[in-house]
Amino acid sequence: MIQRLDSLINLQVDPTQAPYFYAVVNGASPSGSLACMYQHYEVKTCASLFAGTQFQGNEDAGPWLLQLESISPDVDCPCHTDWGFYLYHALDFKSLLKLLQSYLTAETDHQTVLVRWWDPRILFHLLQGLAPEARFNQVIGHALLNYQNLWYIKPCNLKEFDYSDAMENTPWILQDTDFASYRQSDYYINQLALTISENWLRFDEATWRSFNSTAEPLCKQLIPIIKAITSHGVNEYEHIDTFCHIAVKHQKSSTWLLERATHEPTSWLAKTLKDVT
Q1: Which residue ranges make up each domain of the chain?
Q2: What DSSP state is assigned to residue 216?
Q3: Residue 264 burial (C-beta neighbours within 10 Å; 0-12, 13-18, 19+)
Q4: CB distance 68 to 21 below 8 Å
Q5: Three-state DSSP class for 106?
Q6: Around Cβ 160, how many Cβ atoms within 10 Å?
Q7: Coil, helix or strand for 68?
Q8: Which residues contact 272 (CB under 8 A, 6 or more apart)?
Q9: In sequence order, what are the residues at sequence separation of 6 or more whose Cβ sits closer than 8 angstroms to the Cβ of residue 32?
Q10: Model's pTM, two decimal places?
Q11: Digit-coded pLDDT (tens) for 38-54
């Protein structure tokens, strides 16, 4: 379980369990995080997690693994809040690189998805949602991350974990419940609102412009709608998109939607459509 650190002075990691120091850097961060780490740390070696995988060619926007001589989380590094996180680990660089590359994607109930756990805004909620015995908790080792200007540590007993099993070519399975904490986060809701708005613009610019002509930008209109329906168990993107389209087109509030809520999304959606036609 992830734990808040009241002070970095209280940070204690058993060097016999985790003798290697790493940073996982989010290449998509807008602040030049990779260059920042090289400026403030002695980097022993570095590699893209996307190199040699199906995502090769997108290294600039993907995660990077850096082995550091030491970790000083209070270093004056002006990185963006989504720069990445630190790792204390039992595996050497080549072994850890191979292991983390096998966890770029996961199988869910519906499809194979890219899990952007190298962004601390996602990792924080993923670690909150995973069961303590989940394999990824051991794979990630001792993670040290900053979330909303607070430091958190995710400790684990690395001596009890068999990494040979984790490196087998078996899919990482995630359940919908594993994303529960993340789906309740402001970051997820804001990103989803942005995605829906961009898709509407791409496929129906005239409608997007009519929706976006009010005093409030479309993204901001979508946020309370998404927050309301996802808090009531609506997780499918197609359902979320349809609910948003109904609410914006017919100028219905999130309260109006919730008044028509049923026990499952399909019937809720059908009832909502009936009431606007």
Answers
A1: 3-175, 186-276
A2: S
A3: exposed
A4: yes
A5: strand
A6: 8
A7: strand
A8: 243, 246, 257, 260
A9: none
A10: 0.77
A11: 888 899 999 999 999 99
Distance (Å, rounded) from C-alpha 146 to C-alpha 121? Answer: 9
Strand ranges in 1-60 using DSSP code E only, listed in sequence order: 3-4, 20-26, 43-48
Only one residue has tokens 């219905």, namely 252
Sheet bearing 84-89, strands edge to edge: 3-4, 150-154, 142-147, 84-89, 20-26, 63-68, 43-48
Helix (H) or strand (E) run with residue 189 in it:
helix 186-203
Nearest to 174 by CA among 237, 249, 112: 112
| Burial of residue 260, with CB atoms counted within 10 A of its CB: 0-12 exposed, 13-18 middle, 19 or more buried | middle
pLDDT, tens digit (0-9, with 9 covering 90-100), for 16-39 = 778 899 999 988 877 678 888 888
113-143 per-position pLDDT tens digit: 888 999 998 999 888 888 777 888 888 888 9
Which tokens in the block code for residue 46?
A: 């570095």
**Three-state secondary-structure class, residue 80:** coil
Q: Which of 56, 49, 138 is nearest to 100 (CA)?
A: 49
